[in-house]
């Protein structure tokens, strides 16, 4: 984990009126600005590829629709993932040679997931986790590789994917 990522850890579960502007800035910097820097740095290498793919790891928390479906207290994290989704969709439409889309890996059994569930005072995270099997990181990675490998611009580009093969509502 990067030093910047470590600073944000434990502050994913928050509500708007209690969240510092610094927390919003940190999440936005990591999830949006970091992604833009990555795309700009690798764009020419992607253009040279015979199968160019630019995938961003997102979250159901980045779906504006999910606010009503699962109103978890994720204001800074959700806001930054929604912006990440927007910028990846914009990249898709600006680069007609590229397969680009945001992908949600679903619940993955990481230290961040466990710490976040413990930090969520509402208990909603634990309730959401009960509805899913948390994948081990290696299992999630293998599923993601298969999904990415099979993706096409026509079928997948610019869409907000979930790991089960469906699409999230923006």
Describe this structure in words.
By secondary structure, the chain is mainly α. The protein has one domain (3-162): NAD(P)-binding Rossmann-like Domain (Rossmann fold, 3-Layer(aba) Sandwich), CATH 3.40.50. 54% of the residues lie in helices and 8% in strands. It contains 8 helices and 3 strands. It has a 3-stranded parallel sheet. Helix 2 (21-48) packs parallel to helix 4. The protein starts with a helix and ends in an 8-residue tail after the last strand. Mean pLDDT is 87; it is low at 1-10.
Largest β sheet strand count, sense and barrel closure? 3 strands, parallel
- What is the CATH architecture assignment? 3-Layer(aba) Sandwich
What would the CATH topology be?
Rossmann fold
Q: How many strands appear in the DSSP assignment?
A: 3
SSE string, helices as H and strands as E: HHEHHEHHHHE
Q: How many DSSP H or I helices?
A: 8
In CATH, the homologous superfamily goes by the name NAD(P)-binding Rossmann-like Domain
What value does the average pLDDT take? Answer: 87
Unreliable segments (pLDDT under 50, ≥5 consecutive)?
Answer: 1-10
Rg: 16 Å
The SS-based structural class is mainly alpha
CATH class: Alpha Beta
Please state roughly what percent of the residues sit in beta strands, choosing from under 5%, 5-15%, 15-25%, 25-35%, 35-45% or over 45%.
5-15%
Shape: globular
Keywords: NADP, Oxidoreductase
Protein name: NAD(P)-binding protein
Family: Belongs to the short-chain dehydrogenases/reductases (SDR) family.
GO cellular component, one term: cytoplasm
């Amino acid at each position: 984990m990067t030093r910047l990522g470590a600073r944000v850890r434990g502050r994913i579960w928050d509500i708007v009126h209690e969240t510092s502007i610094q927390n919003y800035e940190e999440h936005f910097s990591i999830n949006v600005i970091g992604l833009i820097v990555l795309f700009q740095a690798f764009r020419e290498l992607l253009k040279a590829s015979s199968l160019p793919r630019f995938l961003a790891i997102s979250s159901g928390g980045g779906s504006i629709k999910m606010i009503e479906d699962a109103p978890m207290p994720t204001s800074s994290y959700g806001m930054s993932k929604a912006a990440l989704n927007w910028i990846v969709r914009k990249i898709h439409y600006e680069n007609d040679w590229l397969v680009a889309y945001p992908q949600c890996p679903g619940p993955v059994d990481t230290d961040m997931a466990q710490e976040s569930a413990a930090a969520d005072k509402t208990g909603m995270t634990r309730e959401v986790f009960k509805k899913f099997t948390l994948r081990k990181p290696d299992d999630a990675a293998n599923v993601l590789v298969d999904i990415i490998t099979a993706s096409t611009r026509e079928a997948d580009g610019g869409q907000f994917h979930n790991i089960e093969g469906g699409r999230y509502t923006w």
